[in-house]
Design a protein that fits this description.
The protein is an alpha+beta fold. The protein folds into two domains: 64 residues, Ribosomal protein L9, N-terminal domain (Ribosomal Protein L9, domain 1, 3-Layer(aba) Sandwich), CATH 3.40.5; 72 residues, Ribosomal Protein L9, domain 2 (Roll), CATH 3.10.430. 32% of the residues lie in helices and 28% in strands. The chain has three helices and nine strands; from the N terminus they run ββαβαββαββββ. The strands form three sheets. The chain has a four-stranded mixed sheet. It starts with a strand and ends in a 5-residue tail after the last strand.
């Protein structure tokens, strides 16, 4: 069954594509969730034209996204936080903290795009991944250092 996707479906396709899926998948998942519409012989030309327009937009977005990825790869950010005596942080670095740091460097991403291999709970250099698309996931280095406190 041919389906025109209205929204992205992970590992299946992205919005604006015409894909082939099984009848059961379309009837039980795609159509009830309003993720796509049926492509018939009568509306095939209309959806193919829309798919071409979406392809052109995707190319423009990909170029902007690749420029953003290069900008992220070049970043070397640092942050200072309170630490215990053994260089562990009082609180782990969160996705919100990373979003704020990137915003200060004129890079706008959402919390859901920030991926940690493991949570950042101690000082040192850590790699942070930003998921811009399924294929484009640049990493940058975050240096975490401890604040010195005067007692």
């Amino acid at each position: 069954m041919k389906v025109y996707l209205l929204k992205n479906i992970e590992k299946v396709g992205i919005a604006g594509e015409i894909i082939k899926v099984s009848d059961g998948y379309a009837q039980n998942f795609v159509f009830p969730q309003k993720l796509g519409v049926l492509v018939t012989d009568s509306n095939l030309a209309f959806y193919e034209k829309r798919a071409k327009t979406v392809d052109q937009r995707k190319e423009a977005i990909e170029s902007v996204t690749s420029m953003l990825a290069e900008q992220i790869k070049a970043l070397r950010l640092s942050v200072k936080r309170k630490t215990h005596d053994d260089n562990r942080l009082y609180a782990a670095i969160s996705a919100g903290d990373i979003v704020e740091l990137l915003a200060a460097s004129n890079v706008k991403v959402s919390k859901s795009q920030v991926i940690f291999d493991k949570s950042i709970k101690n000082t040192g250099s850590h790699l942070v991944t930003i998921k811009l698309s399924s294929k484009l996931q640049p990493q940058f280095t975050l240096k975490v250092s401890g604040l010195s406190e005067n007692k």
